Structure formats: structure tokens, C-alpha cells
Amino acid sequence: MARSSNGKSVSMKPEAFMIAVCAGFWLAACSATGAGAADPSATGNAWAGLPEPLVPAVAPEGQVIPDVLRCLRDQDAAFVSAHRGGVEPGYPENAIETFANTLAQGPMILEVDIQRTADGIIIALHDDTLERTTTGEGQVDAMAFADLVEVRLVDEAGQVTDFAIPTLADVLDWARGRAFVQLDVKTGLPVEEVVAGIVEANAISYAAVVVYTAEEAIRVARADPRVAISVEIQDQERLDALLDAGIAPERLMAWTGVHAAPVPDTWDMLHGVDIPAAFGALWYIDNEVRESGDASIYRDIADGGVVVIATDIHWTAYDALAERQDTLGAFRRCTGE
């Protein structure tokens, strides 16, 4: 599937996939040259063959992702979060080629999972082992990054692609001027290292750290209070703990969990303190939509005040939301595009 300039579905040209495949060889070469501490001047050409976003994601001067989300909410617009970057056939999870394919068709926020190798390089990968999503084997934290350079990503159907595992530096380099990314920090990776990577890449305006406990959120804020945080908030106690710790609410977005039904009371609580709410349609609601073919529940969730809907069927949700809002117009207005 592809999108026209107005966000409607059009047929995907087969050569688009081949462009992305070729770009995978560039990515492998760039990753091999230096264990992920990518110099933008060295990696910039790596993305030349990839499609550009339909609408570039650039926060207005001095703003971060939560500011953009508040703007969208004020326009009664919700934003889809493409889980693991927007997986489709031929486009595996957590691949830069997948991110580019997603945003070429319409604006979304990208959820990216990150792990750390044995030699301290942060990479984009969901599992702590390689077998499910790559051609490699073994524990990620037991391998040096150099051991992963020849590993290739595998899509959901088991098809091997030519796409290499990107480093965090690769992701942030590509995303600059193109994408808003939420970096989902996996177990064992110190959040301080993620914050340092964001700051080093000058990515504060377009990257946020995803954590699930108040303690982790506090550590992110202490590492650099400018960095945006997506943290799980499902009750008043958690909200109070975060605010009492001195975390600036304007730097927060609230993950309200994965549920089989909307949770409007939680969203109302967050709206009262001006913190954008995100909700997971993953698994339960997504599966119901797949079975029934009725995607109206995504509109119901947005009507309840949610700004970000995380989903595995991102275009189904995107198209459903398009029936209640001008997604492209709202996104352009909130990014100054």
C-alpha cells in the first residue's frame, strides 16, 4: 500500500521495495565503519535512496514531541504510532527502510525498540535474542556490534531482507528532519545512555524516551530535563509520583496501557494536567478489528481524548481516523510545515 499526497491509498510501485533493498547495503557499510557512534556527515548518503516522508516531522523551534501532541489534541486530531516502525510484508520491524516506507505514505510517530550490545553499542531491536527477527543467533548483550554487521533483518513471514540492524545513532541521523521517534528502552539498558545518545545527536526535538516506571522516568529527567519522556501513567498515584519528583509535565506523554476497551477516566485525569495520552490498541483491539472489519473503535478512542494510538495495523487505524479529522492538515499546522 502507498499513499497519495492527500493521504489516500494508492498502489505501491514494486520498484520502491528495490530502492529500499539497495539502501540496505549502504546501511550495512555505514554500520561497519564505526560501532554506531555515527557522524551525520559520514552516514547522510546512506539514506539517499529511501523515500522521503509525505510530511516531514519537524517540531517548531524550542518544542518537543509532547508540544506537538498537545497541538494535535487542541485540533481534535489523533496520531497513529506505528508499532516497531510500521511492519509490512518485506519491511521488518525496527528497520530504517521500514520507517521510510511508513512515513512516505502518511505521518505517524514511530515506536522503535532499543537494546545494547556487549560492547555498549545501542541498536534498534526488540528481542534480547536474534533468532526471531534476524538471520543471526544468540543473546544481543553477549555479542559485540562487529558480530552483527553481516546479520540481516527478517520480516514477519520469515523473508530475509538486505536490511542491516541499525544503531541508535543511525536511527537518530535518519530521523532528523523526517520523523518523530519514541525509543522503547528494553531491560538492562541504562536510560542515561539513551539520553546521552539523544543529546549527542541533537535529537531532543524529535526523540522521546519510553519507560514504564516512575523511577526510570525520574532518572531520565535527572540525566537531562529537556528530554521528552513517555511513561506509563494509569492512576493518580503514578501521576503524583512523577509530578512530586519535579518532572516538568510539559515534557511528559502518558502511556495508558494496552486494554481491551477505552479507559476514559484515565484520559480525563491526564487532560486535567495537560499531559497528552497514548493508548495501546495492540493485540486486543487490533485483533477485534481484524476479525470484524469494523475499525470505528479507533475513532471512539480518539473521541475520548487520546492523542496517540499505538497499533500493529497502522493503516487501518490511520484510514479510520481520516473519517473524523484532517490528519495531514493538522499535522502540517502543528509542525509548521
Main pleated sheet: 8 strands, parallel, barrel
CATH-assigned fold name = TIM Barrel
Tell me, what is the CATH class? Alpha Beta
| Average pLDDT level | 89
Element-by-element helix/strand order: EEHHHEHEEEEHEHEHEHEHEHHEHH
The CATH superfamily label reads Phosphatidylinositol (PI) phosphodiesterase
Query: What's the number of extended β-strand segments?
Result: 13
How would you sum up the global shape?
Answer: globular
Unreliable residue runs:
4-43
In short:
By secondary structure, this protein is α/β, with parallel strands linked by helices. Helix content is 36%, strand content 17%. Residues 4-43 have low confidence and may be disordered.
How would you describe this protein?
This protein has about 325 residues and is an alpha/beta fold. The chain has a single domain, classed as TIM Barrel (Alpha-Beta Barrel). About 35% of the residues lie in helices and about 15% in strands. The protein is built from 13 helices and 13 strands. The protein has helices at about 15-35, 40-45, 65-75, 95-105, 170-175, 190-200, 215-225, 235-245, 265-270, 285-290, 295-305, 315-320, 325-335; strands at about 1-5, 10, 80, 110-115, 120-125, 150-155, 160-165, 180-185, 205-210, 230, 250-260, 275-280, 310. The strands form three sheets. Strands 3-4-8-9-10-11-12-13 form an eight-stranded parallel beta barrel, surrounded by eight helices. Helix 6 links the parallel strand 8 and strand 9. Helix 3 packs across helix 13 (about 325-335) and helix 6 packs parallel to helix 7. It is globular and about 50 Å long. Mean pLDDT is about 90; it is low at about 5-45.
